[in-house]
């Protein structure tokens, strides 16, 4: 294509693209984000192509593979436009009916619609689904609408209009606009973006660099990936505007190597932008020049830290350095460098296009706009959600997330990733209240506000001892052992610690050693104090944030779940039944005798025969958990190891065949 | 997977040249070599050192720091067990332990016959499917320990994994 040489040409191109699109055509928007790809959207896409071809609908019906729609739990997802019918959990077998009924005749295939568990009714449109209802999708606005490999799609939806507008403004004017919008860094730190830009702009030294941090290393977090995969041009546009405002001509995107699709879509988009004159020496004929390079990370968690990331960009080992030298002044190759994360960059075109006042009208006093969260773990609606700042965690977890599945009890939600991650719990829960009273944090009988009722707001969450984090939200229920969770995070961080400074390198090992002992039933009462002491030392003396916030999971589990630590240490018992060395498996009287457990047992430890009570031979059991996972009647209990025999003996005394149980219940 | 051949030095030279032997491109150079040979052969590392004028210790430092690199040859099949937090709370550990037991390979290692490499990954971002295992890039989700046998059948169709 010919480079677009002025804003007017861009507007002309946009009207041309829109005019060429027949409003009567039907668009099949199939989610092809990593989540839906993993659950099989490709065969669904193939089926659509086949049916569209077989029915001679080519040219009238278009299949569009879009970015992530967010509702991963119900994937593969498809939306039929213009009606906007939302189908979920589509299989290739369903495609025939969709094409025949909806595409050809505009009728809805009811059985493929989402069923609202509360009202038990089928819902036709995405916006009527509780998962989407409370969301405000700005950054993710176009994710489900556009083909991420199509520049035309992005331009048709108003793409690069913000850039065109920005180029008519002064760089100072843009910095001022971003400052007034009160946008804060979405990577977790929450530093005011406009202020960072201003400092970098004023910093001495040339050239200046703008960098996009897409090294999303927190497990269970995939916000940035989805934006890069689903709408790469929005990030590129944000970076060009930022570069113009700061006075930079060279930018980098540092993206996790585990995100091949994001790298692919970003690279395609960069190529398109260059060809269209949106990147290069004379952007939109303004005379301003800027280009972006892609750097794939090497798979090191610590590279999400800004100074480590810059070292990695230079081809070195990703070791962080002390923070008193600011990267906005001495960053990449010792030059002024402005680093923002993917979500922050994607907000920039919105702010420039709609103005700072519009942006600042969303959210709370101190936190403006929206935040994207990845809701995962023990939650009914796993997925990507974008909510306005100020919404409560309870609304996110219950109204949007649908709460904890099954009859299990909510225990905690972890935010902020392994480093810095804290637990947010229901502080009104009697058990937690007791724990806080014991620790002297609250007076007996004092009423506490629930942490779950806290608004999502940088300052409010910090004040309450929690944090916003980058957006990963992992929900845990009664089946998670909090000592094991702390051990898990510390283990993760040992592997990811760069090893440069001693407190982090050695302190984490020591913490892990103690936690490992506790989970094995070899803990000592004085371990708690030692954990506390090491944690404090790490916080005070680590070089970077990875080490400085590494003890958070230990501290917050100790704070709220001291009773679980005590159970492990004093009673050699794991209340959640997770710690293998302490747990025994026992069949209870709920057993119906389907013997599914016996079939999956790898050591042949389960016997009893069909329609009889099953029994686990404790000598053969290796605590692999297979029986527990396969039993649909909750008839396998995870109990304290030395009680397993006892529980099974009691089950033997009380057990009745299912047939008799039926009669007994009928009589009652 | 391409077995290292006599053309390895030539291929390394090509890769290095495509980055104009810039020392800052070291990670990307190693990534390309890793992609082609599925690990970093010693010979290749030495060649990179010569061509980019970098000390072996420096390259070794980078190659061992980043998870993306392996100094050992990989197996024909790559089994990656997601051990991200979301999968962890859905008990991915039990899946991993069962795979270790049935495949007779420890995590992070390759079987003696070079058939299987078993590794853990921090998060594959398919959290709705957790616990997830990737076999040669294909996702297997919502797994229970009892279903591991089916995974083994994918990797070792004839031996079927029931070696106990």
Number of strands of chain A: 19
Low confidence ranges of chain B = 159-164
Number of helices in the DSSP assignment of chain B: 7
Protein structure class of chain B:
alpha+beta
Oligomer: heterodimer
Q: Could you say which structural class the secondary elements and strand pairing of chain A correspond to?
A: alpha/beta
| Radius of gyration of chain A, in angstroms, nearest whole number | 28 Å
Percentage of residues in DSSP E strands of chain A: 5-15%
Shape field of chain A: globular
Structure report:
The complex is a heterodimer of chains A (668) and B (164). Chain A is an alpha/beta fold and 668 residues long. Chain A contains 28 helices and 19 strands. In chain A, the strands form six sheets. Chain A has a five-stranded mixed sheet with strand order 12-11-15-13-14, sandwiched between helices. The mean pLDDT of chain A is 92. Chain B is an alpha+beta fold and 164 residues long. In chain B, helix 1 crosses helix 3 and helix 2 runs antiparallel to helix 3. Chains A and B meet through helix 2, strand 11, strand 15, helix 19 and helix 26 of A and helix 2, helix 4, helix 5 and helix 6 of B.
């Amino acid at each position: 294509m010919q480079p677009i040489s002025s804003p007017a040409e861009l507007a002309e191109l946009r009207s041309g693209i829109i005019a060429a699109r027949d409003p009567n055509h039907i668009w099949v928007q199939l989610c092809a984000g990593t989540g839906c790809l993993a659950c099989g959207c490709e065969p669904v896409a193939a089926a659509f192509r086949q049916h569209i071809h077989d029915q001679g609908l080519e040219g009238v019906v278009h299949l569009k593979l879009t970015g992530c729609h967010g509702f991963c739990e119900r994937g593969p997802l498809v939306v039929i436009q213009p009606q906007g019918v939302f189908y979920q959990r589509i299989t290739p077998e369903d495609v025939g009916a969709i094409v025949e009924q909806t595409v050809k005749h505009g009728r809805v295939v009811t059985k493929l619609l989402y069923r609202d568990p509360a009202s038990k009714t089928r819902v036709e449109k995405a916006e009527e689904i509780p998962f989407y209802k409370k969301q405000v999708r700005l950054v993710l606005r176009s994710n489900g609408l556009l083909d991420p490999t199509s520049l035309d799609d992005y331009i048709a939806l108003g793409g690069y209009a913000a850039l065109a507008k920005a180029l008519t403004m002064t760089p100072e004017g843009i910095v001022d606009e971003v400052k007034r919008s009160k946008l804060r860094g979405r990577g977790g730190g929450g530093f005011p973006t406009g202020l960072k830009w201003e400092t970098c702009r004023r910093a001495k030294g040339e050239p200046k660099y703008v960098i996009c941090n897409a090294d999303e290393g927190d497990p269970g977090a995939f916000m940035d990936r989805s934006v890069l995969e689903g709408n790469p041009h929005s990030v590129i546009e944000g970076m060009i505007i930022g570069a113009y405002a700061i006075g930079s001509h060279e930018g980098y995107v540092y993206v996790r190597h585990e995100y091949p699709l994001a790298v692919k879509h970003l690279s395609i988009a960069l190529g398109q932008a260059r060809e269209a004159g949106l990147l290069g020496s004379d952007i939109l004929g303004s005379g301003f020049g800027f280009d972006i390079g892609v750097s794939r990370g090497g798979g090191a968690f610590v590279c999400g830290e800004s100074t480590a990331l810059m070292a990695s960009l230079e081809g070195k080992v990703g070791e962080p350095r002390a923070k008193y030298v600011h990267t906005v002044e001495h960053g990449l190759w010792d030059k002024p460098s402005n680093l923002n994360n993917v979500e922050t960059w994607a907000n920039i075109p919105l702010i420039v296009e709609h103005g700072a006042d519009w942006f600042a009208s969303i959210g709370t006093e101190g936190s403006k706009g929206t935040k994207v969260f990845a809701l995962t773990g023990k939650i009914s609606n796993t997925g990507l959600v974008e909510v306005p700042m100020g919404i409560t965690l309870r609304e996110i977890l219950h109204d949007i997330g649908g709460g904890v599945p099954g009859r299990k009890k909510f225990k905690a939600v972890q935010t902020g990733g392994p480093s810095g991650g804290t637990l947010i719990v229901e502080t009104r829960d009697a058990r937690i209240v007791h724990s806080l009273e014991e620790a002297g944090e609250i007076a007996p009988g004092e009423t506490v506000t629930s942490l779950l009722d806290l608004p999502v707001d940088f300052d409010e969450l910090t004040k309450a001892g929690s944090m916003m984090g980058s957006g990963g939200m992992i929900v845990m229920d009664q089946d998670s052992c909090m000592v094991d969770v702390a051990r898990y995070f510390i283990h993760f961080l040992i592997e990811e610690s760069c090893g440069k400074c001693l407190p982090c390198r050695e302190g984490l090992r020591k913490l892990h050693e103690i936690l490992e002992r506790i989970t094995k039933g070899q803990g000592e009462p004085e371990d708690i104090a030692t954990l506390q002491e090491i944690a404090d030392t790490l916080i005070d003396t680590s070089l970077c944030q990875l080490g400085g916030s590494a003890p958070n999971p230990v501290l917050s589990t100790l704070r709220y779940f001291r009773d679980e630590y005590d159970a492990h240490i004093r009673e050699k018992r794991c209340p959640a039944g997770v710690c293998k060395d302490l747990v025994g498996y026992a069949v209870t009287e709920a057993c119906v005798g389907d013997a599914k457990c016996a079939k999956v047992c790898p050591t042949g430890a389960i016997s009893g025969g069909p329609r009889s009570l099953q029994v686990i031979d404790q000598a053969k059991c290796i605590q692999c958990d297979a029986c527990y996972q396969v039993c649909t009647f909750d008839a396998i209990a995870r109990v304290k190891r030395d009680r397993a025999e006892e529980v099974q003996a009691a089950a033997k005394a009380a057990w009745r065949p299912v047939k008799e149980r039926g009669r007994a219940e009928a009589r009652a | 997977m391409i077995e290292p051949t006599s053309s390895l030095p030539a291929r390394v030279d090509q890769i290095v040249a495509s980055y104009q032997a810039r020392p800052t491109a070291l990670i990307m150079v190693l990534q390309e070599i890793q992609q082609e040979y599925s690990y970093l052969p010693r010979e290749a590392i030495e060649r990179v050192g010569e061509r980019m004028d970098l000390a072996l210790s420096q390259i070794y430092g980078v190659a061992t720091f980043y998870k993306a690199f392996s100094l050992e040859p990989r197996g024909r099949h790559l089994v990656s067990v997601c051990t991200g937090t979301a999968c962890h709370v859905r008990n991915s550990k039990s899946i991993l332990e069962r795979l270790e037991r049935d495949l007779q390979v420890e995590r992070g290692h390759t079987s003696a016959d070079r058939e299987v490499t078993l590794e853990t990954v921090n998060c594959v971002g398919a959290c709705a499917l957790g616990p997830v295992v990737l076999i040669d890039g294909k996702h297997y989700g919502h797994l229970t320990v009892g279903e591991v046998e089916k995974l083994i059948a994918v990797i070792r169709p004839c031996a079927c994994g029931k070696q106990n």
